[in-house]
Specification:
The complex is a heterodimer of chains A (about 200) and B (about 180). By secondary structure, chain A is α/β, with parallel strands linked by helices. Chain A contains eight helices and eight strands. Chain A has one domain: Rossmann fold, CATH 3.40.50.970. In chain A, the strands form two sheets. Chain A has a six-stranded parallel β-sheet with strand order 2-1-3-4-8-7. Chain A has a two-stranded antiparallel sheet with strand order 5-6. In chain A, helix 1 crosses helix 2 (about 35-40) and helix 5 packs across helix 6. The mean pLDDT of chain A is about 95. Chain B has a single domain, classed as Thiamin diphosphate (ThDP)-binding fold, Pyr/PP domains (Rossmann fold, 3-Layer(aba) Sandwich). Helices cover about 50% and strands about 20% of the residues of chain B. A six-stranded parallel β-sheet of chain B has the order 2-1-3-4-6-5, sandwiched between helices. The longest helix of chain B has 15 residues, at about 135-150. Chain B is globular and about 55 Å long. Classes of the chains: A alpha/beta (about 200), B alpha/beta (about 180). The interface of A and B includes residues 181 and 187 of A.
Chain lengths: ~200, ~180
């Protein structure tokens, strides 16, 4: 889908986003490059890196947002992944969590599996899909300055919001630790829900 | 107590407040009991793997949750179980109303039902087939507590012996 948006870089924008987070916001990053670039932006205990379950970044983020309504929650998801799970946009619109923001990185390809074309390269407009699903506050990011303006806000209110970004085809720059139980445990500690007790001393 | 009100009581007893479901005829009394009760936050999901994701996220955020689905819905969630719930050690509580057996009229349901227990066994997920109201409270309460304590998923399969099965089957089965 062609837009008037400038083609941006996922790693750069992920760093910009993480740099804005001042209230221990939870960030759930989808399988592949979305979480590799989040990992590379600097580990935070409130980051959840998905190592599987393609398409579930937004549902997982919705669950966190429901459980912790006072915390801002951000889902970072690729266009191929969200195409696999478009129904969740309707669910999110229906639940309408004010503390949930979704960022879709759209390069029009399945970059990590060999750059095969996705429907988003042709006719599918993710912002139009989100609006049609009922997420009225959905928009294309025009350029870096526009992205900075859109994320210069508190994430615990105003949602649900979806931002779609046209990005280049560069692979993710980080290498996430491949230990789901450790990642889950660290995330829960970051959210104040983890076990540990004397083991943390 | 009906099986559905027994189940609602067990969820409350164990502080399971989030219910993510995809509708099913047999589950209707359970879904109605939950959506009418302000204790619960109920989410109508579009797919069963989406419901798994929501409950997984809520668990990490400190809220216990359950997923309600039919056998055919369970067949959609193998990847979410194998690549999220099991390796992350997330105590997802699943309730599956069992079709495909004891009076099924839809041939597709009979095949999809046969995939359920092999998938659960392959992933070493505890599962209990609930057949009668007398033993159900003990099985459900103890197994939810075990799931939470051991950080492992559990599936409750609602047999037609418990629920009476799909009400449409009586009229749709062949009369010989």
């Amino acid at each position: 889908m062609s837009t008037n948006s400038k083609v941006l870089n996922r790693a750069d924008l992920t760093k910009r986003l993480v740099g804005k987070l001042k209230h221990d916001e939870a960030v759930v990053a989808g399988i592949g490059n979305a979480n590799f670039d989040l990992f590379a932006a600097g580990h935070r205990p409130q980051n959840f890196y998905m190592l599987g379950s393609m398409g579930l970044a937004c549902p997982i983020a919705l669950g966190v947002a429901i459980a912790q309504p006072e915390r801002g929650v951000i889902a970072l998801e690729g266009d191929g992944s969200i195409l696999m799970a478009l129904g969740c946009l309707a669910t999110i619109a229906t639940v309408a969590p004010r503390n949930l923001t979704i960022v879709i990185w759209d390069n029009g390809i399945y970059q990590i599996t060999g750059k095969q074309a996705a429907a988003t390269k042709g006719v599918t407009d993710i912002v139009a899909v989100a609006r049609g699903a009922g997420i009225a506050n959905a928009s294309w990011v025009k350029d870096e300055k526009h992205f900075d303006e859109l994320i210069d806000r508190r994430f615990d209110t105003g949602g649900p919001i979806l931002l779609a970004v046209k990005i280049d085809d560069r692979p993710g720059v980080g290498k996430t630790i491949r230990d789901p139980a450790l990642i889950r445990n660290r995330f829960m500690k970051g959210l104040g829900t983890g076990r540990g007790g004397p083991l943390d001393a | 107590m009906t099986w559905s009100s027994t189940f609602v009581a067990a969820l409350k007893e164990n502080d399971v407040r989030l219910v993510a479901y995809v509708p099913d005829n047999v589950l209707t009394p359970l879904i109605e009991g939950i959506t009418a009760d302000n204790y619960f936050i109920s989410i109508g999901a579009t797919r069963e793997d989406e419901a798994i994701g929501v409950v997984a996220g809520a668990w990490m955020g400190g809220m216990k949750g359950v997923i309600l689905m039919q056998t055919s819905g369970f067949a959609l969630i193998a990847n979410a179980l194998a690549s999220l719930v099991v390796p992350s050690q997330i105590p997802a509580i699943m309730v599956v109303s069992e079709r495909g057996t004891m009076g099924e009229f839809n041939i597709g349901q009979t095949y999809v039902a046969r995939t359920m227990r092999p998938v659960l066994d392959a992933l070493a997920i505890s599962h209990h087939t609930l057949t009668d109201e007398a033993t159900m409270p003990f099985v459900v309460d103890r197994s939810i507590k075990q799931a939470i304590t051991t950080q492992a998923p559990v599936a409750f399969i609602l047999s037609p012996l418990l629920t009476g099965g799909n009400p449409a089957s009586q009229t749709k089965l062949a009369k010989n």
